[in-house]
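Input for the complex:
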Amino acid sequence: QVQLVESGGGVVQPGRSLRLSCAASGLTFSSYGMHWVRQAPGKGLEWVALISYDGTNKHYADSVKGRFTISRDNSKNTLYLQMNSLRPEDTAVYYCAKDYNWGTFHIWGQGTMVTVSS
Amino acid sequence: EIVLTQSPATLSLSPGERATLSCRASQSVSSYLAWYQQKPGQAPRLLIYDASNRATGIPTRFSGSGFGTDFTLTISSLEPEDFAVYYCQQRSNWPLSFGGGTKVEIK
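Predicted:
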C-alpha cells in the first residue's frame, strides 16, 4: 500500500534552516503532485506548498513564500521542503501528502515535528 | 483567500446518533470541497472529496453535500471510532485553505 514517511524534523534556532524529506513507496511517485501541510501544536491544519508531478509547477502559502522551497527527486521517490529563515511561528508537525485532483490531500504521512526556538 | 467557517466548534453526541457538521465558505468554491477526519496523535484521513464523493474505504455512514458556499458532512449513526476532529478544505482558489475544525465528542 501507499506509504509516505517524513524525516528531518528537530529543534532549530530562529533564522536557521532545515530540510525535510518525505520518502514515498507503494505508488508511481513520478505520476502525482505532492503537498506539504503543517499543524501547529493544538491548532488546525495549514497548507504549505504543492509541487506538480514533474516539478515544473509549484504553489506556496503566503506565510512561507520566499522562505520555503518545495522540490522532488523522482529517481529517489522523495519529496523535500527546504525551510530557510525559520521563525517561532513555523513550529508545527509537517505532513507530506499525495495530491488528488490538484488540491485534495489523498494520502498522508505520519508527520515530522519542527520546533523553532532559541 | 477563501475563509472556511466550520460550525459548531464542538458537537457532543452519543454513539448511534446522527452528526451534522457545517462548513461555510466566504465565497463560492463550486463543489471543490473535501472533508478530513483526524484522531489524536494521528495524521488526517480523507473522507469526502469534491463535496459528495466518498474516498476509497470510507464507510457509507459518511456522506457529504452542498455546493457554492454551504456544505454539510453527515455521519448517519456514530460509531465509537468516529469521535474525532473533522476539517473541511477547499481547492477552488489559491491558497488552499482549511476550516478551523469541528470536534465530535462523546456525550
